[in-house]
Amino acid sequence: MYAFACPSCAKQVPSPRPAKGAQVKCPQCGATFQGSTLELPDPPQDPLAVLQGGAAASAPRRVAGGSASPSAAFVYEAAAPARVAASPKAAAPARAAAPAGTAPPAYRAMPKRDSTPAMIIAIAGIVLIFAAVFGIRWYVNHTYYVETNEAGATVFEGWLTNEEAAARKAALEKKKDVVIERMTAAAPSFFGDKNPQANSDDDLLAVNGPAMGTPAVRSVQKLAKGDPRIALLLWEAVGDPMANNTGGYIVGEIRNEHDVPAREIRLTVQLLAADGELIVSYITTIRYVPSKGNARFSIPWRGVAKDNIAKIEIAAETEKLTSHKDVWEISLDGMTTEVRDEWVYVVKGPVKSPRSYEVFEASVYGEFYDREGVLLGSGTGQLESGYKGRIGPGKTAFFVLDFDTRTSAREVIPQNVASYRLCLVADKE
User: Fold this and answer.
1) Cα 250 from Cα 299, distance rounded (Å)
2) Could you read off the pLDDT of 236-260 as tens digits, one per residue?
3) What's the CA angle centered on 292, arms 290 and 298, to 5 degrees?
4) Whether 371 contacts 208, CB under 8 Å
5) Do residues 255 and 290 lie in contact, with contact meaning Cβ atoms separated by under 8 Å?
6) DSSP type of residue 387
7) pLDDT grade for 147, boundaries at 50, 70 and 90
8) How many other C-beta atoms lie within 10 A of the C-beta of residue 375?
9) Lowest model confidence (mean pLDDT) among 68-82, 381-395, 400-414
10) How far from 184 is each of 58, 202, 209, 376, 421, CA to CA, in Å?
11) Are 179 and 171 in contact (CB under 8 A)?
12) CA distance linking residue 180 with residue 372, whole number of Å
């Protein structure tokens, strides 16, 4: 293939044959120039023409005003390939027959894919889904239930269905209420006289708390150990049927014989066997006991059958206040209570000074008990702001005291409070 190169636009103008010094007009930019042809590679043949057994002819097209001589200007133009008429249904080429006596060609079968791993993965996925659904349903329908006794010891711990846990809790509450009602009916006051109709020591005392009822003093005795100025007015070892006769309460009342108030009286109760060996001991603390004042206590014991207790010893240690401090019990008449923020037990009321002198820097201290008389915790309060912490002789002031049950060493709520004891602590001149 030959072509002229236009010097103006570099267009290659085709030529059917080689030529030298020919006048050529560029079909693209219209410039006329004199030049010689360049030899170019032949264009690719038309595949369709090859299939038809022929090729489309190429013919030069004369340019207006030119000639057919080698020196005339021309443009090479390829003819359009002829279309092959397609029959409506092209017959498939016939397969050549195999020569006689020749075996047919062998065809290789496609290898089968092993579907075992995919099936294993699918089955494992289904199993995991079912396991997850079952595990979630089981967790939703079960509760990890922990049951403790009054001493805080765990008596049951494990997974139960929600219905079983609710039934067990309801049965425990019902059993406790029945026991409390029976014990209360047997003895209407906390430290009352022995009930002549009592069948056992379990029926001797009610459980209204140490701040309620009028004690009937049956004996006054010295403590076995400790501070000799702390007198033990009375005490009883009361079995608790809820503890399956392996627990109960040591209840009693003490008196501060000191001439100054006690900031703290620490009682230690020891349960002894017949040979004098210590079985177990418990400690409780009573704070702010006035001079010549009384205070009651209730100490639970657990894990020891009452028949195995041969002797009980109670010892007291006292931390006294300085002589410029004053303490007196506050009457519970006129007190009102409420619950604030779901956790705080609030006591409000008046306090009247029994003194013939003014006290200042006054605060109110309270101890709170459950219905078995066991100490739940303590709280402090202040006089209303208008009093500025001072109470004159024979005067009355009002106070507010908060007991935050979340500060208790036991897990309690305000509804567990059955009784309380209040006292005023102040400075005196």
Assistant:
1) 5
2) 777 666 666 677 778 788 889 888 8
3) 70
4) yes
5) no
6) G
7) confident
8) 21
9) 68-82
10) 128, 11, 11, 20, 20
11) no
12) 9
The least confident of 20-29, 171-180, 234-243, 409-418 is 171-180
Both tokens of residue 182? Answer: 């029976």
Distance in angstroms (rounded) separating the CA atoms of residues 301 and 242 = 12
CA distances to 117, 166, 361 from 287, in Å = 76, 39, 18
Q: Are 164 and 141 in contact (CB under 8 A)?
A: no
Q: Cα–Cα distance between 35 and 37 in angstroms, integer?
A: 7
Per residue, what are the HEC states of 41-85? CCCCCCHHHHHCCCCCCEEEEECCCCCCCCCCCEEEEECCCCCCC
- The helix or strand, by DSSP H or E, that contains position 178, with its residue range, turns out to be helix 162-186
Burial 333-368 (b: 16+ CB within 10 A, else e): eeeeeeeeeeebbbbebebbbebeeebeebbbbbbb
Which sign does the torsion angle of CA 352, 355, 357, 358 carry?
negative
144 token code pair: 């990890």
User: What confidence tens digit (pLDDT) does each residue in 175-229 have?
Assistant: 655 544 544 443 333 333 333 333 333 333 333 333 333 333 334 455 657 888 8
C-beta of residue 251 within 8 angstroms of C-beta of residue 298: yes
Contact 345, 417 (CB under 8 A): yes
Distance CA 176, CA 154 (A): 17
CA 93 centroid distance within chain: 79
- Write the Ramachandran bin of 308: left for phi over 0, alpha for psi from -120 to 50, otherwise beta: alpha
Q: In 3D, which of 343, 327, 348 has the Cα closest to residue 377? A: 343
Q: Taking the CB of residue 193, how many other CB atoms lie within 10 A of it?
A: 10
Strands 2-5 and 262-272 turn out to be unpaired
Instruction: Count the residues in the chain.
Output: 429
Q: How many helices (H) and strands (E) does the chain have?
A: 3, 24
